[in-house]
Amino acid sequence: MANDSPVGAGTADRLSLPARAISGSRTGLGDRVYRVIVLASVWLVLVLGASLVVTLVWESREALRTFGLRFLVTSHWDPVAGEFGALPFIYGTLLSSLLALLIAVPLSLGAAVFLAELAPPWVRPPIAFLIEMLAAVPSVVYGLWGIFVLVPWLRDWVQPALGATLGFLPLFQGPPYGIGMLAAGIILSIMVVPYITSVSREVLLAVPGSQREAALGLGATRWETTRIAVLRYGRSGLIGAILLGLGRALGETMAVTMVIGNRPEIATSLFAPGYTMASVLANEFTEATSDLYVSALVEIGLLLLLITMVVNGLARLLVWTVGGPAGDVRG
């Protein structure tokens, strides 16, 4: 019986070797398959993005060849005469987006600071949920609200008051149409608030607690702790959140199309109608009758894609740096 135990143990070890080998081979095969699938997914996304850019460049080749860089700096848009210039649409896109940021950034950062630093724990989840729900509202609903509520309010109350008090400024001159750049900026600001607020809140929550404890230990007040130890530490991430909101505003279509007035002109007044790159694509693409017309619209889409990609790329980079060396107090 004394000799049975070692023999039995050795036999069991020999019998278990093939099982471990089979298990190891299966695990290795699964890892290789998983790696191939993940790499294929990454390359598929990259190929799709590259094919999108190549397709837009190819379809806009006629406009690129005909107008060149003049397409970006001229404002004459006449499909009948075959003259196309994208400057009014670039101007309208940038102005409406910047106006939206001027309104949305203070509100968004204030809400993010309140939720991350000041609000009682039982208040934070419902308020954060309600703010994030704004992002789930379809843009056409915002457009309808803008037409039936915002535009009459601006036409009857806000724009006459601004014209009477600040009419000496070019921004607030002209008849109060209601529709126009101001309405588009307000609609966009409402739409980008949940994006900026959500990302900013996550950035502030990612700030280490040691930053707050150090500031409080040195005698800082609650506001000084938030301003110096929290906001300065997460500055890169907050700028990234703002740029993400800008990217969202640049590409918005339906809500802006319904309230901006859709007139291809460059006006200094916020009361005047305007046009954006996304709006002209939504309005005129189905009406394009000539190859040059279609090519010019596709070139506008290409320009909008490139601008959005650059803005979002910068935003992602800044958000990622909040946890690294670029996100410290000296950054």
Blueprint (SSEs and pairs):
Elements: H1 4-59, H2 61-67, H3 70-73, H4 87-118, H5 124-133, H6 139-166, H7 181-205, H8 209-217, H9 222-231, H10 235-251, H11 254-259, H12 277-284, H13 291-320
User: What's the overall average pLDDT, rounded?
Assistant: 87
The biggest beta sheet reads:
none
Strand content: under 5%
Distance between the termini: 75 Å
Number of helices: 13
Q: Mind telling me the C-alpha Rg?
A: 28 Å
What share of residues is helical? over 70%
Number of strands: 0
Low-pLDDT parts are 323-331
Instruction: Name the shape in a single word.
Output: globular
Q: What is the helix/strand order?
A: HHHHHHHHHHHHH
Structural class: mainly alpha
Key terms:
mainly alpha; 331 residues
Structure explained in plain terms:
It contains 13 helices and no strands. With 331 residues, the protein is mainly α. α1 packs across α13, α4 (87-118) runs parallel beside α7 (181-205) and α5 (124-133) packs antiparallel against α7 (181-205). The longest helix has 56 residues, at 4-59.
In short:
This protein is an all-alpha fold.
